[in-house]
What we know:
276 residues; Arc Repressor Mutant, subunit A; 3 domains; 13 helices; Endonuclease, Chain A; 4-stranded mixed β-sheet
Amino acid sequence: MDLTPWIDRRDGIVHRLDALDAGATKHGIERAKQSGSVRVVRRNWLVTEACDPQLLFAATRGGRLTCLTIAGRRGWWNLADGFVHLSVPSTSAATTEAGLRLHWSATPAPVSTRTLVQPPVNALVHIAECQPFERALAVFESAVRVGDADLDRLRLIPIRSRRFSRVIDRVSHLSDSGIESIPRIRLARIGIHMSQQVVVDGHRVDGLIGERLILQFDGHAPHQDASQRSRDLAQDRRLALSGHTVLRFSYRQVMHEWTLVEREISDAIAQGRHEW
């Protein structure tokens, strides 16, 4: 087999045993090493110039990518913290290396020694343990929404983690993004129930409080095209003209100016704008 292109097509890094199983020979591996087209990391990982940097990071440290690193790789909504998250054996020593966050906790799904990536269910367990509650919940809901996790199956996992159980108890499949998950959680803390993805006037709205107080949340998209913005504002006007109260908030307001958002929603409820 032509070893180097074969490894390139697999993110530039494979386990030695996978290469041998696919038809490579020890002599072929040694010849590729001598030519410089392949190098070996921690005895078992064959690496080419095309190697995925995160996978190489994991291989050189004897761990597997997990937590928010997996969320980013799989396209789950998350607030990246700038770390590469690695799961490592419980016997591994602690390290203070910059940009690295280690996870030692046990995970429910078995993982092959030939992989550098934790499966979604294990990554979600680490997210529940690692991240603040509302951020973890938003990631869980995103994983469910894109089909990487099944809520009923997650509930069957017999894991002794109060943080994991708390997140699972609150997961909704209705949030289109984390920017909708977080307001629902925060409003519930002060006794306000927000229904999600309700159809009003023939259109889905992000949130509905009571009978007519509509909440709309703009995602993290400062580059949003003008036509989409125009459609959103036109919908807001239609809803307002039909007697609804519409409050639209930006990503920045939800994430960095929540006190203002909560006050305006509370004021609207105090004025009875949630009832006909």
